[in-house]
Fold this sequence. Notes:
Shape: elongated
Distance between the termini: 89 Å
Radius of gyration: 35 Å
Order of helices and strands: EEEEEHEEEHEHEHEHEEEHHEEEEEEHHE
Strand content: 15-25%
Helix content: 25-40%
Number of helices: 9
Amino acid sequence: MPVPVPRQRAIPAVECGQAPAASPDSGPSKEQAPPGTHPAENPTTRRENPTEKREKPTDTSPDTSTGTDSRTSTGTDSRTGTDAGTGRTHTDRTQSAAPTNLTVLLIEDDPAGSPIVPDLLDQAGKPIRVRTARNLTEAGRLLTDDVHCILLDLALSTPAHGTGDAEDHDELAVLRHVLELAPRHAVLALTSSSDAERGAEAVAVGAQDYLFRDELDGRLLSRAIRYAVERKRSDSAERRLAEGRLRAQENRRLERGLLPTPLLAGSPLRFAARYRPGRSRALLGGDFYDVVRTPDGTVHAMIGDVCGHGPDEAALGVELRIAWRALTLAGLCGDELLGTLQQVLEHERSDDEIFATLCAVDISPDGRRAGLCLAGHPSPLLSRPGEPARLLPYDNNGPALGLLPGARWPRMQVELGAEWSLMLYTDGLIEGHVGEGRERLGQDGMVEMVRRQLAEGLAGEELLRATVNEVRELNGGELADDVAVVLLDRTA
């Protein structure tokens, strides 16, 4: 069905208050002089015809407050001939070349053709542009980014759905449709003076304010438009601020889940950890770790990495860490524990292709021996006095969790000795580049680096800090992947 064309009206202008500071509109205001009158002598505002061809903008400046773009158009100035796009004389185009400050979309259906909105002028005498739509279909077509405010006549007929549900009888259904159509625009509701309650309900639903259509004048309407636009900007800014605070709180809670407090009461072992998310994440990462001591004196340590980055992977890492702690305190270890963790991952992951690598170590109560299980994860680094640091054996490395149903993860027995340091890490520590080339640090490069730092007398938290910082420096900046490092020390 063809869309009806809004009417053009010429109404006497009235003086109004100062217009809000806003970006210029997307096109010049159109003034129409009555017969026999020079255009410069007629200050009335011309309603836009939506069927006219709009001029191509030549400059744009986004408004970060409202999320819309304010635009300025230019055109060719000539004293003769007609505009091929609109059919108007170039004299009219020259007269109306001054840009307006605000553009308003009026949505109303007045069969009598009587004006609802008077002409509006800003403080500089420039007309405020008013576009008119007689239904929501036209409104959707005219609702471009340069519209700052919507004036909605609540008497506009509600779109017919024919469903017979409650929405068909909702007096504010048309307002709800407009708010859904233009969530970023300020909305002023127009109602009759005898229906103030309906206007108040419109504000409760989401309009910025309401006015009585039979009491409108230019000054009042101009102030109301400015107020509605600024209130919408303020509300949007407050909402973005609240959303930002909420995200920050959620990130902090999630970070606390990723960075647990170790349970090592009564153990002679010393603990240190370092965690740094990749450059594309502020707080979130898929790396996780934990250390607990069970009642029999065994110290269990774990570090893992969920493939991918972001909140979903970080949340899955937290779930796996909590599950590991609960299963460990319940007495599970080795292959049985990892098999149960795989079941947790398979039930909680959002995609069947997501997997996690994991390294689990259980250190005997006397601290001289350890059991090691690897699920697709790099082997820990062991250093002892008088011996160069070396990687623990990884020949029996099992598959990552979530890759093979029914997989097995053998437990290897490792002799630690009386005095030692054991470093567990994620692959973010070894996958950074060395210099500007494509060469990566790798496990061999990491081993050489740690050996040198141990020779310099570094230990504990200081050793981890120096290691992570040097890896970043070699990479030429922040690492692309998350980095987690855990260090356990035993002194004689």
